Amino acid sequence: MHALQSGDERAAEELVGANAGWMLSVARRYLVDTALAEDCVQDAFMNAFQNIESFEGRSKIKSWLHRILVNAALTKICKNRRHDERPIDNLLPKFDEFDCRIEASWPDIPTPAEILENTQIRNLVADNIHQLPQNYRIVLLLRDIEEMSTAEVSKLLEVTEGTVKIRLHRARAALKKLLEPILRGGK
To answer: Where are the domains positioned within the chain?
Structure first.
């Protein structure tokens, strides 16, 4: 850490080499466009190097970089807010006149462990998360993937906690509807 804080270029190269891969994966969760995700990672590294002297070592450097990266992704999203402002209504489940959810029966449902073991399904789940409108996708990622609290997400996105809860509920419902054909085995 001292080498990084003293400006050692080799230490900086090692930091980038060890972290660029996972950082790009995280950035792509938030930013569907690969070029934007790459820019976001570059911005995060620049921010980290500019502020490396403020890193006190109370957390792991990976955790510190992760927080910087998520903030950089959210900044990019705010700058590009005009994109992906589509409604979520067509992705939500439908209800009958008795307010019961309309859905086909589920035959044999794979266990969560079986689903997670299948790389193809994991990729399909990630692709379906990217289909969610941005405002809903971001809340889902922050709450369910990054495991932030509702209060933290509310503060970070500068919206009320009620808005976070509504978006999270709708995002989960929409994702479930998108994933049903996959989980049913394409039936």
So the answer is: 2-79, 89-183
Rounded CA separation 12/32 (Å): 27
Q: In the CATH hierarchy, which fold is given to the domain comprising 2-79?
A: Rna Polymerase Sigma Factor; Chain: A (1.10.1740)
| Among candidate residues 27, 128, 19, 24, the one with its CA nearest the CA of residue 77 | 27
- How confident is the model over 161-173, as a mean pLDDT? 92
Q: What pLDDT, in 10s, does the model give residues 108-148?
A: 666 666 665 677 777 787 888 888 888 899 999 999 888 88
- 89-183 CATH pick, 3.30.460.10, 3.20.20.370, 1.10.10.10, 3.30.70.270: 1.10.10.10
- 145 in Cβ contact with 127 (< 8 Å): no
CA neighbor of 166 nearest in space, from 132, 139, 134: 139
Check the CA dihedral 65-122-169-92 and report its sign: positive
